[in-house]
Amino acid sequence: MIISIDGPAGSGKSTVANILAEKLDFIHFNSGSLYRGITAYILKNNVDLKSIDSTEIKLETKFENNTQQVIVNNEYMTNFLRNNDVSISTPQISIIPKIRQIVDECQRSFCSKNNVVIDGRDIGSYVFPDAEYKFYLDCAVEERARRRYLEETKKNPNISLKEIENQLIKRDETDKAKKIAPLCIPKNAIIIDSTSLSINQVVEDMLKYIKEFKKQA
Ligand code: DC
After folding, report:
1. Among 168, 174, 196, 215, which lies 20 to 30 A Cα-Cα from 96?
2. Nearest Cα residue to atom 8 of ligand 1
3. Is residue 122 within 6 Å of ligand 1 at its C-beta?
4. Could you list the pLDDT tens digit for every one of the 217 residues in the chain?
5. Ligand 1 closest atom vs CA 95
6. Looking at domain 1-26+115-195, which CATH architecture does it have?
């Protein structure tokens, strides 16, 4: 069974997906990690983007000790996924058609054999339009910025709330304007606005929908 959660950056998709998966005894599959893994590989091995179409990229993902491992051309990339340079370069790498195709194939192959809660930006709209349950987690940009600010100031005390809000606004625009698989509300998705909800309230809402639909089916 596939449960998809899409939504803008900072809406809490990944945290919610993680808790929901745990409650349902499903696997939490994070699609962004695959884009990050390939980016980490490209940076580490100085792959020239001009020759990306002729570069062999074998992408694998598996779960070890409850952690999603990302392996590119037999190299484990998991430890580099959250590095700053990887976060900065992933948006550019993730718009390359060949990369999207590789990630899509990896997701489809893994998720067709497992019960997963998968979060991303194009999951219910493009990768798994027939997923059993599709959620779109929305949240006002001011609130997303406030949450990010609380996180970020631990690492970077000089960053301002306004700067984070502007970064998020820019990121939303790029994600929505992407030529392939832009961020959008998937057809038939259940929209949850988390602006004034806690993480646990969002998870409870999702569980309610899942039980309700089960009853109707
Ligand atoms: O969710 P995240 O920040 O880990 O995502 C990293 C990057 O990957 C981000 O630039 C958007 C991209 N991405 C995507 O294009 N499609 C997805 N399904 C997930 C992530």
Report:
1. 168
2. 32
3. yes
4. 999 999 999 999 999 999 999 999 999 999 999 999 999 999 999 999 999 999 999 999 999 988 999 999 999 999 999 998 999 899 889 999 999 999 999 999 999 999 999 999 999 999 999 999 999 999 999 999 999 999 889 888 899 999 999 999 998 998 898 888 899 999 999 999 999 999 999 999 999 999 887 656 5
5. 15
6. 3-Layer(aba) Sandwich (3.40)
In this structure, what are the phi and psi dihedrals at residue 121, rounded to the nearest 5 degrees? -125, -20
Atom 9 (ligand 1) nearest CA: 91
Return the domain boundaries, the chain: 1-26+115-195
Q: Residue of the nearest CA to atom 16 in ligand 1?
A: 121
Task: Phi first, then psi: give them for residue 141, nearest 5 degrees.
Answer: -60, -35
What is the rounded CA–CA span in Å between residue 60 and residue 49? 21
Q: Indicate which atom in ligand 1 lies nearest the CA of residue 14.
A: 1
- The answer to pTM > 0.90 is yes
**DSSP letter string, 5-47:** EE--TTSSHHHHHHHHHHHHT-EEEEHHHHHHHHHHHHHHTT-
